[in-house]
Amino acid sequence: MKRLVALDAECGARAALPVVREAMRRLPELSADPRALRHQESDRLAALAELCEVVGWILFDAGRYRAAHRMNDRAVALAELCGDRWMTRFVLLNHSMLKAHTGEPRAALDAAARTAGARALPARVGSLVLVRQAHAVAMLGGRSDSVKLISRAHSRFLDGVSRHDPPWAWWFDETELVGHEGWVQARLGRWDRAIPLLHRAATAPGPSYRKLFTAQLLAALVGAGAWSEAEDLIVEIAPDAARIGSVRTTETLGGTATRLLRGRTDVPTSLRDAAVFLLESLPGGASGARR
């Protein structure tokens, strides 16, 4: 599992897919009905749930959305069998992001709501829940509510880490929060707020999957009509676009480039040419989402 996480962080989900396939061949439990595993020891079930979470995340970032959905369901079932409530929450938060990405904001809200419990969540986890809710509410047109949610997420995050945080909360750091703040603002068309936040997240060092913030930055620049800045960003990222390992990122870049070519009539010729260059540089099929 550590190999999968490291490979995904360094090279992206596309590079990790062959290792996922090998794990599926070597561990038939990853494909088994969780109910058939209920008699196994709790530690074994917990390890399988964690591995299913990692596999589900990689499948999601690799654009295998239906397979990711199935793996998330399996991870939740295994975590519930062994009573690992924190792993259940982690998978549900991943699943909320998956549902938002595939255009199902109400399902995204439902998944985030299922993380609630009898006790208040620690600040870092509570902040992440609010981030997921803010994305979904923005997609549903709740402009003021979405702004309030992302503001609350920022406030909760500033409460800092605590001994109550689960081990998986380490990756939700300031850069991740800033990127999602910018992304939510972009969903609302608040370009003057979105662009600086997305630029800050896109230029910070981090794992491969955070190139998604660069793709969201380009989309925001185009949305704002910042043609010169959008062209400069395309010129910067296109030469290495073929090596981007996150399919979510390449789909987003491809979608933005396609809109520049087909969706607007006021795009400068040089930016159209840059958009063509970007599309030609992306891995095959990046301009269309896969389910």
Features:
14 helices; mainly alpha; 68% helix
Protein described:
The chain is an all-alpha fold and 291 residues long. Helices cover 68% and strands 0% of the residues. Helix 3 (42-61) packs parallel to helix 5 (85-101), helix 9 (174-187) packs antiparallel against helix 10 (191-202) and helix 13 runs antiparallel to helix 14. It is globular.
Strand portion, in percent? under 5%
Helix content: 55-70%
The mean pLDDT is: 93
Largest sheet: none
Structural category: mainly alpha
Element order: H for helix, E for strand: HHHHHHHHHHHHHH
CA-based shape? globular
- Tell me the number of helical segments per DSSP (H or I, 4 or more residues long): 14
| Total strands | 0
Low-confidence stretches: 287-291
> Rg, please?
19 Å
| N→C terminal distance | 25 Å
Task: Please give a quick description of this structure.
The protein is mainly α and 291 residues long. 68% of the residues lie in helices and 0% in strands.
In terms of topology, how is this protein built?
Layout: H1 2-11, H2 13-26, H3 42-61, H4 65-81, H5 85-101, H6 105-113, H7 123-139, H8 143-158, H9 174-187, H10 191-202, H11 211-223, H12 227-237, H13 247-262, H14 269-281
Helix pairs in contact: 1-2, 2-3, 3-4, 3-5, 4-5, 5-6, 5-7, 6-7, 7-8, 7-9, 8-9, 9-10, 9-11, 10-11, 11-12, 11-13, 12-14, 13-14
